[in-house]
């Protein structure tokens, strides 16, 4: 994993903020940037385990294509701090609702209060249990053709069946290479329309369980089947099961559900990122598993704008109520000022 320096420490947390952002990736930092520019008090709490840490670069992000993930985070943190926001290192253990908002407790026992929450905790990729696969993840074992397809273009690419989207994944990678092999692994061999589609695109199907990856000189060279057969491959695509990082939300009643794609979990929300729990928004992969960095950042900014609007609405209601309660006092004070002015004018002969 890539280590990212954190300047602020957890002891610098104030008691309360307008918004606590949980998760410091593209979605969380983008949301924090929007909110700090709106003059909101914001803290980003980040556990420091970004999903894209193993990748050598971020791709498909306009004007930042190829930038190291750690550098993108460092720049984002600096921008948030530049507008008065805080970024602290820590892992959230529990979130509970209080009368005026939320109490966020970290696993080390420290706590902070927030009027609103933005969850941008991302996902954890659960990979198939194949020897050697995890250590190659983000290098020559990939999942997203739009993120990494260009880097493995024209290579011999394998696609390891691991879920309902695996055939679709093979058809996608066919755009980047005409040498694609589909490994059915522990799943049934494609049949019917799926088999016809693979055949029509020239994608070879290999049945049998994959036991391990063959690596020579820190390069993937093939996949070894359980019967000992080795099929040469230079890259491998896998569709992991994506699991939302949301265990600390149990007390709020906010739980992940299966994504319609069947690829894993997500927290449902509306188009603005608003969840079913009042005061809680989500952005990035935790609600949209397919979102790339650019889309996640955009979702964070969108959620932040709606959080700010929600806070403004609340503050306006409070101001209207306070003004109504203070009308009589206001009138008496105004009358007193008028009397003083009249008496003053008389004393000055006016």
Q: Return residue spans where pLDDT drops below 50 for at least 5 consecutive residues.
A: 1-11, 341-350
Distance between the termini: 80 Å
CATH C-level class of the largest domain is Alpha Beta
Number of helices: 8
Overall description:
Strands 1, 2, 3, 4, 5, 6 and 19 form a seven-stranded mixed sheet that branches. A five-stranded parallel sheet has the order 8-15-9-10-11. β12 and β13 form a beta hairpin. The chain folds into two domains: 191 residues, FAD/NAD(P)-binding domain (3-Layer(bba) Sandwich), CATH 3.50.50; 111 residues, FAD/NAD(P)-binding domain (3-Layer(bba) Sandwich), CATH 3.50.50.60. 30% of the residues lie in helices and 25% in strands. The longest helix has 33 residues. It starts with 15 loop residues before the first strand and ends with a helix. α1 packs parallel to α2.
Describe, in short, the structure shown:
The protein is an alpha/beta fold and about 350 residues long.
Keywords:
single chain; alpha/beta; FAD/NAD(P)-binding domain; 2 domains; seven-stranded mixed sheet; five-stranded parallel sheet; 8 helices; 19 strands; disordered N terminus
SSE arrangement:
Blueprint: E1 16-22, H1 26-37, E2 42-46, H2 69-82, E3 86-89, E4 92-98, E5 101-106, E6 111-119, E7 123-126, H3 133-136, E8 141-142, H4 145-148, E9 157-160, H5 166-173, E10 180-183, H6 192-200, E11 204-206, E12 210-216, E13 219-225, E14 230-232, E15 235-238, E16 241-244, E17 257-258, E18 265-266, E19 280-282, H7 293-325, H8 327-347
Parallel strand pairs: 1-2, 1-6, 2-3, 6-19, 8-15, 9-10, 9-15, 10-11
Antiparallel strand pairs: 4-5, 5-6, 7-16, 12-13, 13-14, 17-18
Helix pairs in contact: 1-2, 1-7
Domain FAD/NAD(P)-binding: 17-298
Pfam family, one: Pyr_redox_2
Keywords: Flavoprotein, Oxidoreductase
């Amino acid at each position: 994993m890539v280590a990212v320096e954190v300047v602020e420490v957890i002891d610098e947390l104030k008691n309360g903020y307008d918004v606590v952002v949980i998760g410091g990736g593209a979605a969380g930092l983008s949301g924090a940037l929007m909110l700090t520019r709106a003059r909101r008090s914001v803290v980003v709490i980040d556990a420091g385990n970004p999903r894209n840490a193993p990748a050598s670069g971020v791709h498909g992000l306009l004007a930042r294509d190829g930038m190291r993930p750690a550098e993108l985070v460092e720049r984002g943190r600096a921008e948030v701090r530049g507008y008065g926001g805080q970024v602290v290192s820590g892992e959230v253990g529990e979130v509970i609702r209080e009368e005026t908002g939320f109490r966020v407790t970290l696993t080390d026992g420290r706590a902070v209060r927030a009027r609103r929450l933005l969850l941008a905790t991302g996902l954890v990729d659960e990979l198939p249990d194949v020897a050697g696969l995890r250590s190659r993840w983000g290098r020559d074992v990939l999942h997203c053709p739009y993120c990494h397809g260009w880097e493995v273009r024209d290579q011999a690419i394998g696609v390891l069946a691991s879920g309902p989207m695996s055939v679709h994944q093979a058809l996608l990678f066919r755009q980047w290479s005409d040498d694609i092999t589909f490994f059915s692994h522990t799943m049934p061999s494609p049949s019917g329309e799926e088999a016809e589609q693979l055949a029509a695109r020239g994608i070879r199907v290999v049945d049998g369980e994959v036991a391990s990856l063959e690596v020579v000189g820190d390069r993937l060279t093939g996949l070894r089947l359980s019967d000992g057969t080795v099929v040469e491959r230079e890259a491998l695509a896998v569709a992991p099961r994506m699991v939302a990082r949301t265990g600390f939300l149990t007390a709020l009643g906010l739980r992940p559900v299966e994504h319609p794609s069947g690829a894993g979990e997500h927290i449902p929300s509306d188009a603005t990122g608003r969840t079913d729990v009042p005061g809680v928004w989500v952005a990035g992969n935790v609600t949209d598993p397919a979102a790339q960095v650019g889309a996640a950042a955009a979702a964070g900014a969108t959620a932040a704008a709606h959080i700010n609007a929600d806070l403004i609405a609340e503050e306006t209601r409070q101001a209207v109520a306070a003004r109504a309660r203070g009308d009589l006092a206001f009138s008496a004070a105004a009358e007193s000022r008028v009397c003083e002015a009249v008496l003053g004018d008389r004393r000055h002969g006016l």
